[in-house]
Design goal:
Elements: H1 7-14, H2 18-25, H3 33-46, H4 52-59, E1 64-69, H5 75-90, E2 94-99, H6 104-116, E3 121-124, H7 132-141, E4 145-148, E5 158-160, H8 164-177, E6 183-186, H9 193-208, E7 218-219, H10 225-238, E8 244-247, H11 250-262, E9 272-277, H12 281-284, E10 290-293, H13 296-300
Parallel strand pairs: 1-2, 1-3, 3-4, 4-5, 6-7, 6-8, 8-9, 9-10
Helix pairs in contact: 1-2, 1-3, 8-9, 10-11
Length: about 300
Amino acid sequence: MNQRINIDDIAQAAGVSKATVSQVLRNAGRISPETREQVMKVAQSLGYVYNRAAANLRAGQSTTVGIGVSSLSNPFFAELVSGAAETLEDAGFFPMIVNVEDNLVRQQRFGTSLRENMCAGAVLCVAPDTTPKMLAEWKAAVSHCVMVLRPPKAALFDFVGVDNVEGSMAAAQHLIELGHRTIAYIGGTSTSTSREARINGWRQVLSEEGIEVGDDLIEPCGATIAEGSEAVRRVLKRRPDVTGIVCHQDIVAFGVTIGLRKLLLEPGREVSIVGFDDISMSAEWDPAMTTISVTPRALGN
């Protein structure tokens, strides 16, 4: 087995002091660009691997920031993570991305891992069933944390999110202005606080316009294309008079368009749809999706 390369080996090969090598590897000190480049070239040629864990232990801090989201298979979260990772990397941090899947056990393990590795902080889309006690435990484990999308039940963290009520009101109003009078709401799960807020916005606009707001026009479903397709089938079986649909997410709206075509209905012509997110795929969908713009990548930034 080859002996592990250390900074003494690099210093000797580069013809500089051990202190200079240490400063270059830590990106510290007043080292000339030429010397810095020389040391890095020698380190790479020798196959040196920087022991980040040991450096973190010595410094008592880390450059790793955890990002925990509910579903990386959802394009919305993929774009949000991409934006957050870009900003972190530009600031000299390394993002560690975890698919928490709204699972409380996975969320707890994520927080424990961040604490064990002395991570610098975290970005978390908190699981819906998280209790205030769990949030207090998370705060003790990860003091520097920003919550995204779902407001935490305890005021312990900074929060970045969207105005769900206003967005849903805009979606419903758009359909009303197109002439629709039977408008359904599809998507979101029963435990989703964002769904509750968006349904409230949908209800408010329809009520103000004197339009029917019935529970038979509301259909929950998961955030997948397949579930959106099935959900619109269930709604139209109950209410074949529906001509407009507000969807909880773009990915659900994609499924709704597929479900409509399975029922031999043309989306955008026979049934109008408004999504919510404005993920990049929405502009390329057929037909191009009308959607409430949340700009997930910018939200991550």
